[in-house]
Structure formats: structure tokens, C-alpha cells
């Protein structure tokens, strides 16, 4: 036990030396931190480990991290130490979830902390590990898919997650509803991008109408063009440049969808397939089918 405690304490020496050198914490405070962490480590290294010990250590480190951030902001120094506290917190969560794999609430706290700190680089792996130990928890699959789509901008990963969940739980009605909603959200996103880029025919027609000057006093064979100023030319160039930048930001999947005027995806083909498969996979239920209608209405004008 003593060797393990010493190992973890030695790892924090460079961090504490930096905090003292930058005057973020005083020598007295550094000694207090060392004492607290030593006590926590001995508790975590006991033969019979308890979840409450991990939670207390995590709570202490989170509070310490908040204090460190405030002092760094006030002093304007120590930015090179900004990740040291967070790494220790993530390490404590990792150790806790390894020991208490079946504790879903602990995994949810781990996920929530990573979300609040926008740790997108590790959230995907956290979700994968949590699902590995809780494969029959539909809410966890949905949470992971929602995050992949809305925050990680990875629709393909979101689809894969829900498809795998449905293979495990084909009769879970919540999964079918959320998969249906996911595809409708994707359609809305593509349609919005089309409108922004001016791809919709209606939008193009409005632009053409706006460019025409209807002068009733002129001869029918005469076409009057609007006056073009230097500001107009500059604005058109800027709009064209913005459009090019927007197109570069598209994924290959989105770009293909935007190029197809009658893309079946935009017509709701996948959503209809999901609905048909859902009806075949679950027992007949009016409420189950009605929920699909309610979700669809959320996306209609």
C-alpha cells in the first residue's frame, strides 16, 4: 500500500512545485494539499475500497481546481499548469470506474464532468467504456448518439451507436423513437444548410425576382437592369467567398446531399425505413405508432 501511495504522490511533485513557484498557492497551502492527497490515497489503496472515498477525493480535486483557475485568472500566470488538475480528476474517475464498473451513476458523473469541461477528445472513449459495462441501458446508448451528433458533429457514429443498440434491444421502443428523431434532425440540418447556401429553388427564384426591375411605363420589349454600385460588387464577392468557405466546411456526406436536388435522404427515406422496421420489430401498439407521428410533427411547419 505504502509503495502505491508513494507512487501517486511523487507524480504530483512537478505540479505542486510549479504552483508554488508561480505563487498560485503558498507553501502552507501546498503542505495542506499534500496532506489531504496523502490521506485520500491511503483511503483509495485500502484492501476493501469504497466508492465514497473516490467521490470525496474527486470532490476535493474539483474544488481545488476551481480555486486554482480563479487565482490564475487573477494573477495572469500559471497557464502552463492549466491541465494538471483536470488530468488528476480524470485519473480519479478512471480508477473509480475500473473498480466499480457496474455503478451506472458513477459513469454518469464521469460523463457529466467531461461534458462540462468540453473534453471532446476523451468523451467518445468514456461512452464506449460505459456502454461496454452497461450494454442493456438504452438511455446510455441514446446519450452517446446524441452527443456524437450534436456536439461531436459525427452523424455516422451516432447512427452506428443506435443501430448496435437496436441489435441488442430490438423491442426497445425508446431506441426506435430516438433513431427516427435522429434522422429527422439530420434532414433538418441539411435543409438548413441548403437554405444558407441558396441551393433551394425557391430561394434562387426570389433572388432572381429581386434582381428584376418591373417598370410598367417602359415598352414591353425593354428590360431594365438594376443599377450596380461598387458596394454591390464588393458585397457579391464577399458573399461568394463566404459560400466557398461554407462548402469547404461540409462533410463528404453532406456535400453529396446538397448536390442532389431530389435526394431521397431529404425526402425522408431513411426515416420511413426506420418506421417500417420498428413496426415489424415490436408488438402492435397504437401508442408506439402515435409517438412516431408526434415526433414527425415536431419537424413540420
Automatic annotation (TrEMBL):
<comment type="similarity">
    <text>Belongs to the UTP6 family.</text>
</comment>
<dbReference type="GO" id="GO:0000462">
    <property type="term" value="P:maturation of SSU-rRNA from tricistronic rRNA transcript (SSU-rRNA, 5.8S rRNA, LSU-rRNA)"/>
</dbReference>
<protein>
    <recommendedName>
        <fullName>U3 small nucleolar RNA-associated protein 6 N-terminal domain-containing protein</fullName>
    </recommendedName>
</protein>
<dbReference type="Pfam" id="PF08640">
    <property type="entry name" value="U3_assoc_6"/>
</dbReference>
<feature type="domain" description="U3 small nucleolar RNA-associated protein 6 N-terminal">
    <location>
        <begin position="9"/>
        <end position="80"/>
    </location>
</feature>
<keyword id="KW-0677">Repeat</keyword>
<keyword id="KW-0698">rRNA processing</keyword>
<dbReference type="InterPro" id="IPR055347">
    <property type="entry name" value="UTP6_N"/>
</dbReference>
<dbReference type="InterPro" id="IPR003107">
    <property type="entry name" value="HAT"/>
</dbReference>
<dbReference type="GO" id="GO:0032040">
    <property type="term" value="C:small-subunit processome"/>
</dbReference>
<dbReference type="GO" id="GO:0030515">
    <property type="term" value="F:snoRNA binding"/>
</dbReference>
<dbReference type="InterPro" id="IPR011990">
    <property type="entry name" value="TPR-like_helical_dom_sf"/>
</dbReference>
<dbReference type="GO" id="GO:0034388">
    <property type="term" value="C:Pwp2p-containing subcomplex of 90S preribosome"/>
</dbReference>
<keyword id="KW-0539">Nucleus</keyword>
<dbReference type="InterPro" id="IPR013949">
    <property type="entry name" value="Utp6"/>
</dbReference>
